[in-house]
């Protein structure tokens, strides 16, 4: 069976919650052998972040939270007590057999255990060591704990998300998913792959310092560039776009739809569909720059037109002439959508307790080394014996001894 592009790469995942586990899952999806280290009896914090819980075959809750399931497939779970000297030695030995370590402890938190980068590098100079924190390894905020919601506020995202001042429901709003955690996981994945490529040429590993706040600022993209170039502070605009018009939601006879016009040709087609071809020749709206300058007038005109037909009717009409548009779907409609189903964005993976667990698929499509769904998110400590025998060649007696002394 094709084991993926990263077959043979060993990853020791000491992280918990979302950003680190997301990176670990991405590497695991690409074929790496990812070992997730968890606390005995409790495990990753997110195991308790429910409901909802995965149900077993009798419909009873398994204790596996949906939150935990979203970021931990294709991994093996090992339980080790880091407060135990013997447990620390187990982690150290596992790190010696690893290509990558991912951790999201507080800055300096692993020094006391001898599991920080400098300590592990001395014994394994080829190690790629990725540290994920709220604010980075250096700087005045380095010691602070970091959380996605907090960083969405501090990093400016909430200042541009939500209805504008004076509008109904105005005020800053966080994004509806922990997007900074997810983006940090993706940046971590890119950095780890780059560090592995560098190691192939240099023979040396390196330390990766990733901060949620840095990532949050980096993915502000055009909004940050608008500020740096235009020297004007972006404001909340609801669903409108600061640089393109019309590019937002519009009311219909039975709800709302999105119109996303990206150029003047598409705008002309939109005007034809709306029954107002003359708008495309109006001096206020001929170019995108003019439409941005006259945003309020144009949006008001379009709103008056779109309420006359249903969402489905408008979408059919606009798609027929190449105007980008679409519905605002709830998640039940997302996973029922024929295109989403064709793309197989929902997968079922065998689970040792539930029989089968439904998961969101990885969106990466690779022709030569495709993503494989080898295993479900592991139960707590499911692979402790297997991994310690596989990576460290421990005997059954060794395992019994460690377990008796509560190191694993």
3D structure, described in words:
Helix content is 37%, strand content 16%. With 408 residues, the chain is α/β, with parallel strands linked by helices. It folds into 2 domains: 10-219 and 343-404, Rossmann fold; 247-329, formyl-coa transferase, domain 3 (2-Layer Sandwich), CATH 3.30.1540. The strands form 4 sheets. Strands 5-2-1-6-7-8 form a 6-stranded parallel sheet, sandwiched between helices. Strands 9-10-11 form a 3-stranded antiparallel sheet, with helices on one face. The protein has a two-stranded antiparallel sheet with strand order 3-4. The relative contact order is 0.14.
How many distinct domains? 2
CATH architecture of the largest domain: 3-Layer(aba) Sandwich
SS element count, helices: 16
**CATH third-level topology of the largest domain:** Rossmann fold
Identify the overall geometry. elongated
Number of strands: 13
What is the helix fraction of residues, given as a range? 25-40%
Largest sheet, order of strands side by side? 5-2-1-6-7-8
CATH H-level superfamily of the largest domain: Crotonobetainyl-coa:carnitine coa-transferase, domain 1
Largest sheet: 6 strands, parallel
Overall mean confidence score, pLDDT: 96
CATH class of the largest domain: Alpha Beta
Q: Ranges with pLDDT <50 over ≥5 residues?
A: none
What is the percentage of strand-forming residues?
Answer: 15-25%
The radius of gyration is: 25 Å
Cα-to-Cα separation, first versus last residue: 32 Å
Order of helices and strands: EHEEEHEHEHEHHEHHEEHHHHEHHEEHH
The secondary-structure class comes to: alpha/beta
């Amino acid at each position: 069976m094709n084991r993926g592009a990263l077959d043979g790469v060993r990853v020791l995942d000491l992280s918990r919650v979302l950003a680190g586990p997301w990176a670990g899952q991405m590497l695991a999806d690409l074929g790496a052998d990812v070992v997730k280290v968890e606390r005995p009896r409790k495990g990753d914090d997110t195991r308790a972040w429910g409901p909802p819980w995965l149900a077993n075959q009798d419909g009873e809750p398994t204790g596996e939270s949906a939150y935990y399931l979203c970021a931990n497939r294709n991994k093996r779970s090992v339980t080790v007590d880091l407060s135990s000297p013997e447990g620390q030695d187990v982690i150290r030995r596992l790190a010696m057999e690893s290509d990558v370590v991912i951790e999201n402890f507080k800055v300096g938190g692993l020094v006391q255990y001898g599991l920080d980068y400098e300590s592990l590098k001395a014994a394994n100079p080829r190690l790629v060591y990725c540290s994920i924190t709220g604010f980075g390894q250096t700087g005045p905020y380095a010691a602070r704990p970091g959380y996605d919601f907090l960083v969405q506020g501090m990093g400016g995202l909430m200042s541009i998300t939500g209805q504008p001042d004076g509008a109904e429901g105005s005020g800053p709003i966080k994004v509806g998913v922990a997007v900074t955690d997810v983006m940090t996981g993706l940046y971590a994945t890119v950095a780890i792959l780059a560090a592995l490529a560098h190691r192939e040429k240099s023979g040396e590993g390196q330390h990766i310092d990733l901060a949620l706040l840095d990532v949050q600022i980096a993915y502000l993209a055009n909004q940050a560039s608008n500020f740096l170039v235009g020297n004007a502070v972006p404001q909340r605009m609801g669903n409108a776009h600061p640089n393109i018009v019309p590019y937002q939601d519009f009311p219909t006879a039975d709800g709302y739809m999105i119109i996303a016009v990206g150029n003047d040709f598409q705008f002309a087609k939109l005007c034809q569909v709306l029954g107002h071809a003359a708008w495309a020749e109006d001096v206020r709206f001929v170019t995108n720059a003019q439409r941005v300058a006259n945003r309020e007038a144009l949006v008001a005109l379009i709103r008056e037109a779109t309420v006359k037909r249903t969402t489905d009717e408008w979408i059919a009409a606009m798609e027929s002439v190449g105007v980008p548009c679409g519905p605002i779907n709830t998640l039940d409609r997302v996973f029922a959508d024929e295109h989403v189903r064709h793309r197989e964005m929902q997968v079922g993976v065998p689970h040792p307790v539930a029989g089968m667990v439904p998961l969101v698929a990885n969106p990466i499509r690779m022709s030569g080394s495709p993503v494989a769904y080898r295993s479900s998110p592991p139960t707590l400590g499911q692979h402790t014996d297997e991994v310690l025998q596989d990576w460290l060649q421990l005997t059954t007696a060794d395992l019994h001894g460690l377990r008796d002394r509560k190191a694993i």
